[in-house]
Amino acid sequence: MGTIELTLTRFVKFWFLRVKSKTKVGFCFWNEAILYTARRLNIELDSFFDWAKKNQTLYFSEMLYSAYEVWCKENYQKPLFNKNELLISFSLLPEKKQKKIMKVWQESESFGVKENKKKVAKK
After folding, report:
1. Do residues 104 and 2 lie in contact, with contact meaning Cβ atoms separated by under 8 Å?
2. pLDDT tens, residue by residue, 14-63
3. Taking the domains of the chain in order of start, what are their residue ranges?
4. Strand-pair partners of 24
5. Angstrom distance (rounded) from CA 101 to CA 57
6. Which of 32, 89, 102, 108 is least buried, going by the fewest C-beta atoms within 10 A?
C-alpha cells in the first residue's frame, strides 16, 4: 500500500543533444517521505500539515520527490532524477497515470480505508 511503479521519460544529455529514454521508477508514499520533506524544508513535524495546507503546490512537488527518494532507497538504487527532472517527467505522463499516482497517494494518507457507501433505505 502506498507504492506505485511506472515508466517515466528521462532526457539524457549526449554531447549537445538531449535524447529521450524510458526509465522505470516508483513512488513510496510512506511516513518516511513526510520525514524527508520536513527535513529538507526545515519544518517541524508539528506544523508540517499546516504548512502543507498553505503551500499545496510546493507540498505536492516536494512529496513527489521524497516518495521517489524513498522508493530508490528501498530498491537500493541511486536516484536518476533531480527534483526538476522528475516534475517534468511527471507532467509528460498521460492524465490517467497521473491520477493513478494521486490515488495511491490519497489512499496512503487514509491508510487504505475506503469511505462507506450510503445504503438506500428500503420501505
Report:
1. yes
2. 888 888 899 999 999 989 999 999 999 999 989 998 999 999 999 999 99
3. 3-109
4. 7
5. 16
6. 102
